[in-house]
Amino acid sequence: MHTLAKITFTETKLALRSPAWVISGLLSPTVLLLGVGAIPALRTESEKTPGMRFIDAWVPSLVVLTIAVMGLQAIPAVIAAYREQGILRRLATTPVHPAKLLVTQLIINVTVTIAGIGLLIVLGSAVFDVPGPRHPLGFLLAFVLGTTAIFGFGLIAASVAKTGRAAGGIAMIAYLPIMFLGGVYLPRPLLPEVIQNIGAYVPPGVKALEDAWTGGGAQPLQLAVLAAFAVGSCVLAAKLFRWE
């Protein structure tokens, strides 16, 4: 544990020296929320979002954005770059198993994800009076399962890519449709119903997040599908992963 703590401290310092991913994960969703919230029409109830304002309904999609950026862009790029630079290979010859470096990267990026979503919730409430999740436990469960599934996809990209640039390209195969189905590019109420239904079961589970945030709570089937994706992606990443 002492070794893991030292590696985590070192990797955190390195991440802060080149903080592009940290800043993106922390600030991008909140900046988008503040920008959209500055438009008066989006702070009023519409026929597309009955019973709530557009800005209230869009927050779960910004949660999707945070998870996708850190899980499908940051993690693959960093880990594949370490393989490309031979860092993982060199660690494999020392008493420090390279798996600890992998765990450290997961700790850092998940922490940034949680901090970014926390900042989104706090400022959304303070500036625009956006309500928090109506079902906090359901939201937390959907978040954990969805984040695990997305980070598993990111590790799959990192597992098969030989360079950081290649990892980013491979991860884009999942990143772009997840952002679209999650309502980041186009708000979910404006998407065709069939697309909304597909997005309801694709990680990181925007419909489960929405239902826990604004509705009656995440549905068991949604959570079960997210759990299956989470287990499947992590198992596949473990089978494909190579240190060299």
TrEMBL record:
<keyword id="KW-1003">Cell membrane</keyword>
<dbReference type="InterPro" id="IPR013525">
    <property type="entry name" value="ABC2_TM"/>
</dbReference>
<dbReference type="GO" id="GO:0046677">
    <property type="term" value="P:response to antibiotic"/>
</dbReference>
<dbReference type="GO" id="GO:0043190">
    <property type="term" value="C:ATP-binding cassette (ABC) transporter complex"/>
</dbReference>
<feature type="transmembrane region" description="Helical">
    <location>
        <begin position="167"/>
        <end position="186"/>
    </location>
</feature>
<feature type="transmembrane region" description="Helical">
    <location>
        <begin position="221"/>
        <end position="241"/>
    </location>
</feature>
<feature type="transmembrane region" description="Helical">
    <location>
        <begin position="102"/>
        <end position="127"/>
    </location>
</feature>
<dbReference type="InterPro" id="IPR000412">
    <property type="entry name" value="ABC_2_transport"/>
</dbReference>
<keyword id="KW-1133">Transmembrane helix</keyword>
<dbReference type="InterPro" id="IPR052902">
    <property type="entry name" value="ABC-2_transporter"/>
</dbReference>
<keyword id="KW-0472">Membrane</keyword>
<comment type="similarity">
    <text>Belongs to the ABC-2 integral membrane protein family.</text>
</comment>
<protein>
    <recommendedName>
        <fullName>Transport permease protein</fullName>
    </recommendedName>
</protein>
<feature type="domain" description="ABC transmembrane type-2">
    <location>
        <begin position="20"/>
        <end position="244"/>
    </location>
</feature>
<feature type="transmembrane region" description="Helical">
    <location>
        <begin position="20"/>
        <end position="42"/>
    </location>
</feature>
<feature type="transmembrane region" description="Helical">
    <location>
        <begin position="139"/>
        <end position="160"/>
    </location>
</feature>
<keyword id="KW-0812">Transmembrane</keyword>
<dbReference type="Pfam" id="PF01061">
    <property type="entry name" value="ABC2_membrane"/>
</dbReference>
<dbReference type="InterPro" id="IPR047817">
    <property type="entry name" value="ABC2_TM_bact-type"/>
</dbReference>
<feature type="transmembrane region" description="Helical">
    <location>
        <begin position="62"/>
        <end position="82"/>
    </location>
</feature>
<keyword id="KW-0046">Antibiotic resistance</keyword>
<dbReference type="GO" id="GO:0140359">
    <property type="term" value="F:ABC-type transporter activity"/>
</dbReference>
<keyword id="KW-0813">Transport</keyword>
